[in-house]
Amino acid sequence: MQDNKWTIDELLARYELEPELRDVFVEGTFDREILSHHLQASGSGHAFYEVDTVDVPIKVLALYGLTSGNKQRLIALSKELATVPTTARVYCLVDRDLDHWFGTVQNLPRLRWSSFCSIESHFLSVETIRDVVITTSRAKIGNFDVFVSSLQSVLRQLYALRLADRELGLNLKWVATRKYLTTNSSELTFDLAGYTQAVLNSSSATNKKVEFTALTDRWQRTLACDIRLACRGHDYTELLAWAVSEFHGQREFSTSDAIQRLFVLLARSVSSLANEVQ
């Protein structure tokens, strides 16, 4: 990352003078590393930059009614870059997160949305789970199919909670999940009721329990879709790390950070990542 941030005016001049540049601005280090490593040998010419390399002033965010998060700053930047020549190849890539379920995926010339919920979703395949949990981490799982099915079920439950929170506009304070996870043979189980109560307690929102629980149940029924469109990336890496620990895998791979480093290593072999830069 460069020491001096680009200004928006400098970027406008950059793409006016060099429209052939294939610059992609992303939310953070992990996204940059994954995409760079995936395309390293392809000769595509893409260069990836974190949004922190750009000065996006508060007044620009306010102009578009946006907050200071990385995703929000990228959306603002894409709007500021809307005036660069149509031949320019620059764009900003943001995670879908929950937006595709609420119809808030904006169609802007310099803004692209991840194909799935997040970059981590590209690694949510049976093959990658096996590579990470069994082959690399050497976790002791008897029935791998049961494990994968239960993993996806927990991810959907956690995602449904986020959807319900957004729909109600509660802005809940989330608590760590590991206390509410257990294993039964090869299966992961999640105490959804206990976790829901803990989250509502932490946010002083217990008066919303009935409504929140009903919405969570409704969203769970809705999420009978591709798991890559119904999962938070951080939940996925956290669950894999926890599973490595619980099923007596190599301790070195029992953290979310370690799982992310494995994803970077595997990035070249994940063909769907190419869709993010086409």
Spatial separation of the terminal alpha carbons: 24 Å
Q: How many H/I helices?
A: 10
Sheet with the most strands, sense and barrel status: 4 strands, parallel
Number of domains: 2
Tally the beta strands: 6
Query: How large, in whole angstroms, is the Cα Rg?
Result: 20 Å
Q: What does the average pLDDT come to?
A: 96
Fraction of residues in helices?
A: 40-55%
Question: Which spans have pLDDT < 50 for at least 5 consecutive residues?
Answer: none
Beta-strand percent range? 5-15%
Order of helices and strands: HEHEHHEEHHEEHHHH
Task: Kindly describe this structure.
- Strands 2-1-3-4 form a four-stranded parallel sheet, with helices on both faces. The chain has a two-stranded antiparallel ribbon with strand order 5-6.
- A hairpin with a 2-residue loop joins strand 5 and strand 6.
- Helix 2 runs parallel beside helix 10.
- The longest helix is centred in the middle third of the chain and has 25 residues.
- The protein starts with 7 loop residues before the first helix and ends in a 12-residue tail after the last helix.
- It has 278 residues and is of the alpha/beta class.
- It contains ten helices and six strands.
- It folds into two domains: 107 residues, Rossmann fold (3-Layer(aba) Sandwich); 144 residues, no CATH class.
What is the element layout, followed by pairings?
Blueprint: H1 8-17, E1 22-26, H2 29-39, E2 46-50, H3 58-63, H4 70-80, E3 91-94, E4 111-113, H5 126-136, H6 144-168, E5 181-184, E6 187-190, H7 192-202, H8 209-222, H9 233-246, H10 256-266
Parallel strand pairs: 1-2, 1-3, 3-4
Antiparallel strand pairs: 5-6
